[in-house]
Amino acid sequence: MSSNDLQFKGYAVHDTKDWDKFQVIDFKPKEQGDHDVDIKIEFCGVCASDVHTITGGWGKPILPIIPGHEVVGHVVRVGSKVTEFKVGDRAGVGAQVLSCFKCERCKTDNEQYCTNGVDTYNAKYPNGDVAQGGYSTAIRAHEHFVLPLPKELPLEEVAPMLCAGLTVYSPLVWNGAGPGKVVAIVGIGGLGHFALQFARALGAEKVIAFSHSPDKKDDAMKLGATDYVLTNDKKFAETWAGKIDLIINTTDVSDAIPLTDLLKTLKVHGRCILVSIPDEKLPDLQAFALASNGALLGGSKIGSKKDAVSMLDLAVKKNVKSIIQVLPMREAGTAVRNVKENKVRYRHVLKVDI
């Protein structure tokens, strides 16, 4: 397909009350820029963020909305000033498509925290153009937010890494996961199944899987866990008190996060990093829960392009895998319902069928 034949069509939600009802619409992409890359989409991962957005859990979205920010395909057009990509290249887009490029955050490989950044969907460009996501035939994005994809990784498997994988990889690296460290992953799902693998790939001495359910133990151990801990055991915090350097919490439901107990398991100045963003407020927390061991409680937002490139390289070298279930894109409604109802092991990927 030539760039002149590229059609921008997507599966859109028109009402948050009918958040699992998708209709195909034509849409206008952002105005072409000299640094823009057009990608013909082949697969798009389904993220919990998609569900939070289309249900209105994170606030009223821009309707109609085409979700999706784990986008992979091939380049069909490049702007006159694009240097990193050429037509025919494999390429992907994660959860961000633009930043200001001028602020301190952008200049220090923290562009995901740019206060003028543009998300892949449910966002507007500075000129008012609406950004639409990857449940569609094509996407246009600035080349800095387009990722080169290693040939060793099948497109459908690399797609979920562009958000879910990056969301856990970045805080693992930035918070010191590696040789000699004890790392715990809370929640063994779409994010957690990547976190276990990347923690081991980074060389952590121990990787503990924390889960409320016993039925994922076999999966967790195969994915790299050295220990499996049930958080509904009231004594788990006592058993692990003061033994963990870093916790990555991927649990997406606030009342399922045993936050105070998790903090007890940290070593002095250990860190608990929250990477999911539940609709509800976090559990109540007394200040003493942080003061007793100098615990640090923090958050993280996706990752930079530098992080993403190094993540994909590590995935190739250490054989990190996406565990996926592929559906045709016309079944997007089924996919988002399965995510909402926690029925996916461990990521849905949609194959373009428009």
TrEMBL record:
Cofactor(s) the protein requires to work: Zn(2+)
Domain of life of the native organism: Eukaryota
GO molecular function: oxidoreductase activity, acting on the CH-OH group of donors, NAD or NADP as acceptor; zinc ion binding
UniProt cross-references to SUPFAM superfamilies, sorted A to Z: GroES-like, NAD(P)-binding Rossmann-fold domains
Keyword Oxidoreductase: yes
InterPro entries given in the database record: ADH-like_C, ADH-like_N, ADH_Zn_CS, CAD-like, D-isomer_DH_CS1, ER, GroES-like_sf, NAD(P)-bd_dom_sf
Keywords noted in UniProt: Metal-binding, Oxidoreductase, Zinc
Span of domain Enoyl reductase (ER): 17-350
Alphabetized PROSITE patterns for the sequence: ADH_ZINC, D_2_HYDROXYACID_DH_1
Xref: Gene3D superfamilies: Medium-chain alcohol dehydrogenases, catalytic domain, NAD(P)-binding Rossmann-like Domain
Transmembrane annotation, as ranges: none
Family membership: Belongs to the zinc-containing alcohol dehydrogenase family.
Protein's recorded name: Enoyl reductase (ER) domain-containing protein
